[in-house]
Every structure is written in C-alpha cells, then in structure tokens.
Model the fold of this input.
Amino acid sequence: MNIQSRSQKSPRTDEEVIRSCGLFRGLDDTQRAVLTSMAVRKRFKQGTPIFVQEEACPGLFVVDHGLVRVFRLAPNGQQHVLHLCGPGQTFAEVAAIGGFALPACADAAQPAGCVMIPTDRLQQELALNHQLCRQLLTGMAFWVRHFVQLLEDIALRDAMGRVTRLLYDSPCDASGRIQLPGAKKDLANHLNLTSETFSRVLRRLAEQGVIEFDQDRSVHVIDAQQLEQLSGQSQNTDQ
Done:
C-alpha cells in the first residue's frame, strides 16, 4: 500500500506542485521551469464549478490541495464521474495540449487549490519547444496506461475487485488509515457501481476483518495482505 503522511507543507510553491505531478515525470528541470513560469494560482470553494464541457479549455490544471470532481454530463442530465483528482494529479490536460473543447465538466468536491498553465501560453510554447513536446510524451504515455487500466478494471473485475483496488491504490498513513477520496456516491459512479453495491462491498470487507470504519469516515486497513490479494485476484460476482 502507498503509505503517505497526511500533513503537507502549505503553501507549496508552483514549482513544487508541478514537480509532484505524475504527468510531468518525464520533464527535466529546464522544462519544468518553463511550465512554472506560466503558472497561475486558482482557488475554488467546495461546490464551485471550475468549467463546463464543450467550453474552450482555459488551461491545464494541477491540483495542489483538495479534491476536484471531473464528470461527463449526458443530454438527459445524468452524470458519470471520470476522475476524482487529488494533490499532484491533473485535469483538462488533453484538451489543453490538444487545443480542443473540454470533453467534461469539473467542480470542487472539496475546497481546492490548483496551479493552472493557460492553454494559449502552453500552445505557444509547444509550437516552439520541441524538447518540451518530446518529454511530455513520456508523461502522456503513463496517463494513457492509467486509463487503460481503469477500463480493464471496469470491464474485467467484479465489484469486490474494483473496490479493493481503489482502497489498495489510495494513500494511507502509517497506521493504515485511508481517507476515502470523495463521496461514496461519486466513488461508486467512478467504478460503474451503484452506491448500494459499493457500500455492501465495504460492509463485507469489514465483516471479513479486512477493514474497519472510523468515526471521521476514514477506513482503517486491518489486514493489508488480504486487501492486496483481493485487489489482484478477486473472483467474486457481487454486481
């Protein structure tokens, strides 16, 4: 499991936020400095819309703190959660780099702070800086691999496998406590499960002694080894 401290230095500099971003893992110090020079700080209160799908993309966002919900809105008003983006993660990156309209909406699921790299400045730099283009391809390759893995999980894993994979991949503190990265209904929607099925799987894990619930909505992992096994080898069929 990915053990992390919940405390973070605050505030982080723009360069620290960009350095923490997985999308930019292939960039050297020179190219990170280029992006840092473009950075604009954005802060959003909980529930604040950040952008709406089909609008022009304002920029590439890197989350510094908080949680951002990215979702696709259907013509009938139904929502499907595509990402729940926490610190170090990006959103609107494809639209900003590709220069096309936003394919989804975003709002602040929690009070959030982001570093934004404006689309116009990013596009200008990409047109001139071939080294930046080449190095960004590395980060984009990891980004694509992540979403292929997510699609595989939805298509090939049952409910137990999806939920345990989510828990196993979530950061926890040294005592094994995980703060669920978002509301249960959003997490369930993201995993293509109903809220009832998501809650039922959590209850089953608690009954099996794998996890227990704390009063602050966090999940305490009791048996990390069993959680790891379930996240990789679950064959249950709880749909």
